[in-house]
């Protein structure tokens, strides 16, 4: 595929047509919404085929409804977002005489979107909400790990958009590498930190601005005042959604040492309630590929070999050694050490290390001794303890008394920090991320005295100004 040619045609169309009107932006968003509604069943079928087993309900919630929501939010608000923003002049006296300062939001042009395999539809369409609201065109490179879904999206977009508006490029790592090296006006990558380093190097050659949505080991801090039953149910719901194949999945739990046993039992009870069976239960998602299955089971065996207690929360009588799909039951790893691989790498599966602490300072220090995560979760009813956790740790975002939910808030920016990513989108923040904020200053028409005083020959007026300006 001629990716360079597609990009050139999109850039030429952007210059030819100029910034699209609000009506044109809404029309593009409406076409995206219609694609999701009309292709719901096909999307569910494709993702089930790609994963081996993935429930229609999971796909409906996360990939279909979870994409329509951001698109509708952008559609309802983009007229307001597009308005020119008035600012104060400096010095203020210029404004009194009629000078103006403003910020105009201008489309960047063509945005490259590299979307991942775990929620391939949502993590294509949700960024498009901001990209299209901001008036841009887009080129999309979906993951080769979900080939049926990627080909479906290529067909979907081609049925509703010209190649000058939105184009989809499919292929393996070589295509992805070439895509990342294109001179886009902006690029958003969602995926692994290790791949992001390559994407960033490629983008640097063309000085392409980046939004990186990565991951990391998102911790749960279980406060001493937490309701353990509620916390365990919510943590395990987040950990088993999509079988833990979520960038924001809780990656490990820090629990008070005297509440470890109660957390384990509450986790066991919550899993049994959600999944009375797992092996042949369509509600429980498979691991997407054999190499990921081997990686996750390798973490479990490595932890067991290094002395951790492994608690498999599997239904009685189910043997996972022989199965049609790559399903791994929810598994707790108790008191892991940092020498274990499960504590060194993002898990991206239904395995949850649980580590005890004796003081909150100890828990906070453990989080701060490691890379800053994409998400952090605190459970508890102690306001002072909550504020200490929020103020003493740094993460992309936080959900209090639940997990993952902050990503669903369209009025909150979603993004990482450090190894968890850079930039943010969703809602108004997404519109601004994919817009060029152009500063415009309109000078006075009349050449009044203060302006003349700024030019040679310098006299008493400029010296008086400097004496007032250069002081504490």
TrEMBL record:
Active site: 213, 247
Name the record gives this protein: Aldehyde dehydrogenase
Residue ranges occupied by any Aldehyde dehydrogenase domain in the UniProt entry: 21-440
Family: Belongs to the aldehyde dehydrogenase family.
Gene Ontology terms for molecular function: aldehyde dehydrogenase (NAD+) activity
Region (Disordered) residue spans: 1-20
Gene Ontology terms: cellular component: cytoplasm
Keyword Cell division recorded: no
CDD domains: ALDH_CALDH_CalB
Keywords: NAD, Oxidoreductase
UniProt key word Ion transport: no
Source domain of life: Bacteria
InterPro entries: Ald_DH/histidinol_DH (IPR016161), Ald_DH_C (IPR016163), Ald_DH_CS_GLU (IPR029510), Ald_DH_N (IPR016162), Aldehyde_DH_dom (IPR015590), Aldehyde_DH_NAD(P) (IPR012394)
GO biological process terms held by the UniProt record: aldehyde metabolic process
């Amino acid at each position: 595929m001629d990716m360079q040619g597609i990009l050139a045609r999109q850039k030429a169309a952007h210059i030819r047509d100029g910034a699209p009107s609000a009506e044109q932006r809404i029309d593009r968003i409406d076409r995206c919404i219609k694609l999701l509604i009309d292709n719901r069943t096909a999307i569910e079928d494709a993702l089930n085929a790609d994963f081996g087993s993935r429930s229609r309900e999971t796909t409906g919630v996360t990939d279909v409804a979870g994409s329509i929501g951001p698109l509708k939010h952008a559609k309802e608000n983009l007229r307001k977002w597009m308005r020119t923003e008035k600012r104060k002049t400096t010095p203020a006296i210029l404004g009194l005489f009629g000078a103006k300062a403003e910020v105009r939001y201008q489309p960047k042009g063509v945005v490259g979107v590299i979307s991942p395999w775990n929620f391939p539809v949502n993590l294509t369409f949700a960024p498009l909400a901001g990209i299209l609201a901001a008036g841009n065109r887009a080129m999309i490179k979906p993951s080769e790990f979900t080939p049926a879904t990627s080909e479906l999206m290529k067909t979907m977009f081609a049925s509703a958009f010209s190649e000058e508006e939105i184009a989809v490029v499919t292929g393996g790592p070589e295509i992805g590498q070439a895509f990342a090296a294109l001179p886009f006006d902006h690029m958003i990558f969602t995926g692994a930190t290790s791949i992001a380093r390559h994407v960033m190097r490629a983008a640097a050659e063309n000085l392409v601005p980046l939004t990186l949505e990565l991951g990391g080991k998102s911790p749960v801090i279980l406060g001493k005042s937490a309701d353990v039953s509620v916390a365990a149910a919510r943590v395990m719901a987040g950990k088993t959604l999509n079988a833990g194949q979520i960038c924001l999945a809780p990656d490990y739990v820090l629990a008070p040492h005297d509440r470890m046993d109660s957390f384990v039992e509450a986790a066991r009870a919550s899993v049994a309630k959600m999944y009375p069976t797992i092996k042949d239960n369509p509600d429980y998602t498979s691991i997407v590929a054999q190499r990921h299955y081997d990686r996750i089971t390798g973490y479990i065996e490595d932890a067991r070999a290094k002395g951790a207690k492994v608690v498999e929360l599997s239904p009685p009588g189910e043997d996972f050694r022989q199965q049609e799909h790559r399903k791994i039951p929810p598994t707790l790893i108790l008191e892991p050490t940092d020498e274990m691989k499960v504590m060194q790498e993002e898990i991206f599966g239904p395995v949850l290390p649980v580590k005890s602490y004796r003081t909150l300072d100890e828990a906070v220090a453990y989080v701060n001794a490691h890379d800053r995560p994409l998400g952090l979760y605190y459970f508890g009813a102690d306001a002072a303890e909550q504020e200490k956790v929020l103020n003493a740790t740094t993460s992309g975002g936080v959900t209090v008394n639940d997990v993952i939910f902050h990503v669903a808030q369209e009025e909150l920016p979603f993004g990482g920090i450090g190894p968890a990513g850079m930039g943010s989108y969703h809602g108004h923040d997404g519109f601004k991320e994919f817009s060029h904020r152009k500063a415009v200053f309109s000078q006075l028409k009349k050449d009044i005295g203060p302006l003349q005083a700024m030019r040679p020959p310098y006299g008493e007026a400029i010296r008086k100004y400097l004496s007032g300006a250069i002081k504490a």
